[in-house]
Amino acid sequence: MSETIIRPLAAADHSAWEPLWQGYLTFYKASLSAEITAETFERLTGGREPMGGFVAERDGKLIGIVHWVIHRSTWNIRNICYLQDLFTVPEARGSGAGRKLIEAVNATARAKDCFRVYWQTHESNLQAQELYDKVAEKSGFIVYRQPLG
Questions:
Q1: d(Cα 102, Cα 131) in Å, to the nearest integer?
Q2: Most buried residue, 28, 32, 45, 56, by CB count within 10 Å?
Q3: Model pTM?
Q4: Where does 60-125 have alpha helices with state H?
Q5: Residue 15 within any structural domain of the chain
Q6: Which ranges of the chain does DSSP label H, i.e. alpha helix?
Q7: Three-state SS at 113
Q8: CB 82 within 8 A of CB 71
C-alpha cells in the first residue's frame, strides 16, 4: 500500500472533494443543496472563516476528508476546535488515514492555541468509534438538536 499524504484542503481540490463530501452525506443519510455544498467549500478554502480542512491522498487520489471549525468557548479564554465531517472511502478504512486526518486537526488546533478538539459521531457508527476510542475520550454528553427552520 502506498503512503497516505495529509495536506490542507485547497480550492483546486473541489472536483475531487465533492464526491467525498457526497459520500459523507450519504453515509449519514443526508442531502444538501448545491448552494450549501458550494458555500461550504468556499468557507473551507476561502481563508475568510475560522475553518478549514485536510485531505488524505494516496497514489494521487483523495481517499479522505476532514473539516474543522475554531470557535470561542465559555469554559476557557482560549478557543476550542470542533472536528467536523471526517470521512474516508470504504476501502481506506482501517488503513490509518482517519487517524492521520485527526492528527492534522489536532496540530492545527495546537498551532491556533486551542484548548481542546472535540467531535461527535452517530451511535451506530461503530467502525469509527473503534478508532475514536483509541485516540480520544468519550465526554459522556448527549447531543440534542432543535431545528429553527
A1: 10
A2: 56
A3: 0.94
A4: 97-111
A5: yes
A6: 14-27, 34-45, 97-111, 126-135
A7: coil
A8: yes
